[in-house]
Structures are given as structure tokens and as C-alpha cells.
Write a structure and sequence with these properties.
This protein has 234 residues and is α/β, with parallel strands linked by helices. The protein has seven helices and six strands; from the N terminus they run E-H-H-E-H-E-H-E-H-H-E-E-H. The structure holds 3-methylbut-3-enyl trihydrogen diphosphate (2 copies) and magnesium ion.
């Protein structure tokens, strides 16, 4: 049994997750990779609720990257089906999800119906205090190029960092303080390239479907043991 909840203060307002390891989790059990995604979606739900409970202001989950289309169609289709099912659950239980939802990424690849559902969920939850970003067809490089084009289209001839940050999919949000990657690989895989400039990175071998509240507590404890210097001297 878990004892106390971790104490969160203003040093930790945004945690972002690279939810990796679903496929290997399933393979280890002799099951198709798609089953791993199903279990991974359960972990997502559990961890999102826990993040709200412990008082994080912003939480971001990397669900599908701009590069993940390279996977076999069977797997991509299974992930899209899961996404649809999840959108349906959010619509049904909208009052219970105590988050402002934001779908970040290039949504133009999704059909009009899916985009409208995402927009409706964002609009219905717009006034809420904490933000839950779900990164779908998200790539950090794509986001940067998209921001450049938006700034050009707005007629800008020169921009500063604040203008640029505002033009990203995460415009108006705080940068992540802590990025957690499960699955054992030590890389960023095109996630939040601009926003992660001074994020603390935490890697764990735990495969995403096995990730739980106590493992997040351990990552948070590790975060609070670090000294963030931002290039200065402490
Ligand atoms: C992460 O798990 C989920 C997505 C990228 C959609 P993976 O599917 O990458 O699982 P592994 O890394 O192959 O085990
Ligand atoms: C990162 O995982 C993307 C998501 C978790 C959505 P990948 O499994 O796609 O990353 P690579 O291929 O190992 O870099
Ligand atoms: Mg992976």
C-alpha cells in the first residue's frame, strides 16, 4: 500500500511522458503488439488521474508520433481504433475528467469527424485549471516548421523566443519540468524539441504498461533531488 502522496510545489508544474514499450510488453507475453497498446491505454488513464490527484498543473502524453506511421498498417489501425474508443470515453465522462484537454500535433491527417470530436472536447473543457496534452501525430520538428509557417503567414519578418513559443502547439503553456521515458531507450524521439531545452530527463527500463503510481513517485523524488541551474551557478 502506498503511504503519502508526493508533495508537489511550483518547481514541478509540468510532467511529460514518452509512453514507450507497449509492443515489447506484449511480445514478452506472446501476444500481438496491439494488445500492448490496449494495456498501455489503461496505464495512460491511471497515470493521468494520478497526476491530477497529486496536483500537477500540466501533463503531456506522447501517444503517436509523426514517425509512427511507418509501422505495419495493422498496428496503426489498432492504435487509431483505440484513439477513437478513448475519444468516446472522454465524451461520455467529460465531467469526470478534471482536465482541460489539448490535442497537440498535426491534426490535418485526421478526418473531419475526428478533428471535430477533438475540438469539441477541447472546447467543452476549456475553462478547467489543469491541462492534459495528448500528442497525436506529433513531431517536434513538424511542430517547429508548423510554427515557422504560422508566423510567416501572420506576416512576421522577425520573431523573438516568446513569439516562437506562442506559435507552437503548446502555445501559452509552461515548458515541461520533467520528461519521463519508459521502455529503456535513452532518446527523445522527436518529442517537445523546443520545450525540453531545460527539462529534467528521467529514463526507466519499466515498459509503459507496467508503469504505475509508485514508479511515478520515484521519478518525482528523483526530480526533487536534482539541481536545476539553467546555465547559472547555484
Ligand atoms: C509506445 O510503445 C507506443 C507508441 C509508440 C504508439 P511501442 O509501440 O513503441 O512499444 P515498443 O517500444 O515497440 O516496445
Ligand atoms: C516514441 O516511441 C513515440 C511515442 C511514444 C509515441 P517510439 O517507439 O516511436 O520511438 P523510437 O522508434 O524507439 O525512437
Ligand atoms: Mg517504442
Amino acid at each position: 500500500m502506498k503511504s503519502a502522496l508526493p508533495q508537489i510545489d511550483e518547481r514541478l508544474s509540468h510532467v511529460a511522458f514518452i509512453m514507450d514499450g507497449n509492443g515489447r510488453w506484449a511480445k514478452k507475453r506472446g501476444m500481438p503488439r496491439e494488445v500492448g497498446h490496449r494495456f498501455g491505454a489503461e496505464t495512460f488513464r491511471k497515470i493521468a488521474n494520478y497526476c491530477r490527484k497529486i496536483g500537477l498543473k500540466t501533463v503531456t502524453f506522447y501517444a503517436f508520433s509523426t514517425e509512427n506511421w511507418k509501422r505495419p498498417p495493422k498496428e496503426v489501425n489498432a492504435i487509431m481504433k483505440l484513439m477513437d474508443r478513448y475519444l468516446g470515453e472522454i465524451e461520455r465522462d467529460i465531467a469526470q475528467y478534471d482536465f482541460r484537454f489539448s490535442f497537440i500535433g498535426d491534426k490535418s491527417v485526421f478526418d473531419e469527424k475526428r478533428r471535430a470530436r477533438m475540438k469539441a472536447i477541447e472546447d467543452m473543457t476549456a475553462g478547467r485549471e489543469s491541462t492534459l496534452n495528448i500528442a497525436l501525430n506529433y513531431g517536434g520538428r513538424d511542430e517547429i516548421v508548423h510554427a515557422c509557417n504560422a508566423l510567416i503567414a501572420a506576416g512576421k519578418k522577425a520573431v523573438n523566443e516568446a513569439d516562437f513559443a506562442a506559435a507552437l502547439y503548446t502555445g501559452g503553456q509552461k515548458d515541461p519540468d520533467l520528461i519521463i521515458r519508459t521502455g529503456g531507450d535513452l532518446r527523445i524521439s522527436n518529442f517537445l524539441l523546443w520545450q525540453s531545452a531545460y527539462a529534467e530527463l528521467y529514463f526507466t527500463d519499466c515498459l509503459w504498461p507496467d508503469f504505475d503510481e509508485s514508479k511515478l513517485d520515484a521519478a518525482i523524488e528523483d526530480f526533487y533531488s536534482r539541481k536545476r541551474r539553467y546555465g547559472g551557478v547555484l
